[in-house]
Amino acid sequence: MAGRKISIGCIADDFTGATDVASIFAKAGMRSSILIDVPEDGTVVDADAVVVALKTRTIDPSLAVEQSLAALRWLRGEGASKLYFKYCSTFDSTERGNIGPVTDAMLAALDSDFTVACPAFPANARTVYKSNLFVGDVPLSESGMRNHPLTPMTDSNLVRVLAPQTTRKVSACYHETVKLGVDAVRAWSAQARAEGFGVGVIDAMDDQDLEVIAEALSDDPLLTGASGLAYGVARVLRKGIAQSQSANRIDVRPGSRAVISGSCSTATNAQVQRMLRDHEGFKIDVAHLAHGRDVVSEALRWAEGRLGEKPVLVYATAIPEEVKANQAKFGVADAGDMVETALSDIAKAFVEGGVSEMIVAGGETSGAVVKALGIKRLDVGREIAPGVPWVSAPHAHGPIALALKSGNFGGTDFFLEAWDSLS
Predict the structure, then answer these.
(1) Residue 74 φ/ψ, nearest 5 degrees
(2) How does residue 1 score in pLDDT terms, banded at 50, 70 and 90?
């Protein structure tokens, strides 16, 4: 490959997670690029950190493993000796996976016998203590994630969550060990390996903990976690990398602005309601989609004359009771598919009609929109909020500025304030 050697290759299980982790590497001064799915042969990427964005969080575990291993093989073929498996800081998955099966497969492919699982992301109030994941001061199982429409999380103990998913024994490293420093974590890791454990859930309460963990396990070929641990990894790696002066610059062109929201998280519900106080919005009704109404055309007619510098909102975001009612009527998978298809069709038509700056809320929605637009690469720009950067995508109509937002991220005014950081 021409250009610089990849210092770290990352495999993300959804598209918002890919932009999230790439932003962490970019902030550390590393030239970062995101590739949508495994690239074709002959693709050349000039970057220190390369993130392959997959859409594997909720698909069949066997398909998730297949796609993740294909990404791993490509990254290793491009020179990446350090691999990172990125999943959500709420560790959400199905009962069969896919965090456990993908981790098992990657370890086997790398001929490695041990890795850690650390979804802590202190910058977004995700911490792990005594193997329990907290969202702010609330255990995960008591947070809004208990009502997630696809991956509800009803247990905060990560050892219990992960153990049924993996064929490997799961150990735990508590904060009492992490706070003792690098040597203590290395000693714990060596002992866990000696005792036959294959995965270790490790506590982290702040960024310093994440740096300790990354330094202690710097010789391991694979680490797994959310973007928090990637922060620690970046801090370790950047010591040998020249700082990039263009890491946060993206292409922006004049055009209209829009918000496409499919997430039904507590945070996104609040963001939608806040935006509707001052802006117009069009709600996608699942029942209308199920009964065959051409909701996409209705939304596009509504948007005519409204699109401009002032952003408009198209949303399927709903409260948990409404989501559950729709799932009961139309099926979990079918309801989700109908919404994703409608929102991605609307986003594609928006771009063809002159929208050049777009916020997309929700991991599944972001994946559907990016695929509908035919985007293959994203360049990382300025961070809007922890875990959410602006990214730029080349497109036939000119570069598109996108903010692919995890449903749980961002403050209440996110949809209104994000544009101020676009440059």
Answers:
(1) -65, -45
(2) very low
Task: Determine contact, residues 259/358, Cβ cutoff 8 Å.
Answer: yes
Q: Are 414 and 271 in contact (CB under 8 A)?
A: yes
Host H or E run for residue 19: helix 15-27
Question: Distance (Å, rounded) from C-alpha 270 to C-alpha 258?
Answer: 17
Mean pLDDT of 295-299: 97
Contacts of 222 (CB under 8 A, 6+ apart): 83, 84, 85, 103, 106, 107, 110, 112, 115
Q: What's the order of all strands across the beta sheet hosting 126-129?
A: 126-129, 132-135, 138-139
DSSP labels, 95-114: TTBSHHHHHHHHHHHTT---
The three-point CA angle 103-25-215 to 5° equals 65
The answer to whether 317 and 291 have CB atoms below 8 angstroms apart is: no
pTM assigned to the model: 0.86
Q: Which amino acid is at 344?
A: S
Is the pLDDT at 195 greater than 80? The verdict is: yes
Report the length, in residues, of the chain: 423
Q: Residue 88 in contact with residue 228, Cβ under 8 Å? A: no
Residues 12, 367: contact at Cβ < 8 Å?
no
Domains annotated for the chain, with CATH where assigned, are: 8-240 (3.40.50.10840), 256-421 (3.40.980.20)
- Crossing angle of helices 15-27/363-372, nearest 10°? 90
d(Cα 128, Cα 84) in Å, to the nearest integer? Answer: 19
In sequence order, the 6+-apart residues with CB closer than 8 A to the CB of 337 are: none
Q: Is-contact 83 9, C-beta < 8 A?
A: yes
Q: Where are the beta strands (DSSP E) in 167-322?
A: 169-173, 197-202, 222-225, 256-261, 281-283, 312-315
What percentage of the chain reaches a pLDDT higher than 90? 70
Closest CA to 370 of 13, 29, 55, 155: 55
Of 106, 87, 108, 75, the closest CA to residue 8 belongs to 75
